[in-house]
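As a warm-up, study this chain.
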Amino acid sequence: MMHYSYCGDSGVQLPKISLGLWHNFGFADDYKTAREMIIHAFEQGITHFDLANNYGPPPGSAESNFGKILNENLSSHRDQMIISSKAGHLMWEGPYGDGSSRKYLMASINQSLKRTGLEYFDIFYSHRYDPNTPVEETMQALVDIVRQGKALYVGLSKYPPVQARVAMNYLKERDVPCFIFQDKYSMFNRLPEKDILNITEEFGSGFIAFSPLAQGLLTDKYLNGIPEDSRAADPSGFLQKEQVTPFLVDKVRLLNEVAVQRGQTMAEMALAWALRDKRVTSLIVGARNVAQLRDNLKALENTSFTQEELERIDAILDGATL
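Now compare it with the structure written out below.
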């Protein structure tokens, strides 16, 4: 059974687990499997689907596939869904196909709406801080995107704390508050605990974590080596073989012992742990197939930790990062 949380100070609830379409939903992937995952996710109460203009591969194809699946299978449920997209990373060649300028954001959202066939996005993010563009220019583009009806809410992704505060202030002063902040967060990346979670709480924004399983390292997948079909085995993947170090694998082995004692898999416990902080609204999970998605959803069956368990996990991690 899905659980939901209000996103910051807003009246909108997001599912504790959201489906990310970063991998496995592009033209290079199996369309039938993508369709099965999206339909199964919605049937299980996942109402939030997270896209970006450059998701694929190739870039743009995840939005196109999602739009086709939505139109053919779930179009009557559009008002029951939260669909987000982003712009900020390289999308096309030339001086206007990357970054966070008004030119790029406006062109990007128009292209994304066309690819998905949507009239509006529920959430549209600035995908990254661009040091070559004034924050005010990027934020005004987001404000105007909302006022033009192309998105209901706006969000920030991966902004450093100093720039995040400037951006949130700008948005707040124009009555288009930052609805949600997206960042990498897991047992192996606890940086948001230092500043960002406090800033989102201060501004009444939600927080959504991506890579809560550290690209699959916080599962039992790598306990006995690197499987051929894993992300680390893919030379073009974001998790490289050299990152799967004996040091980190030993940490996961010890964490897995805690998970077993809790009656969970390593992945289930890692997801539950990332949700232990009330400031965390939702987690974005990726999946290769319905079975993997189903396993991730089991994390919601036990999201409470004893103080002893939390202390034991902290002692195992001991500042380990990926």
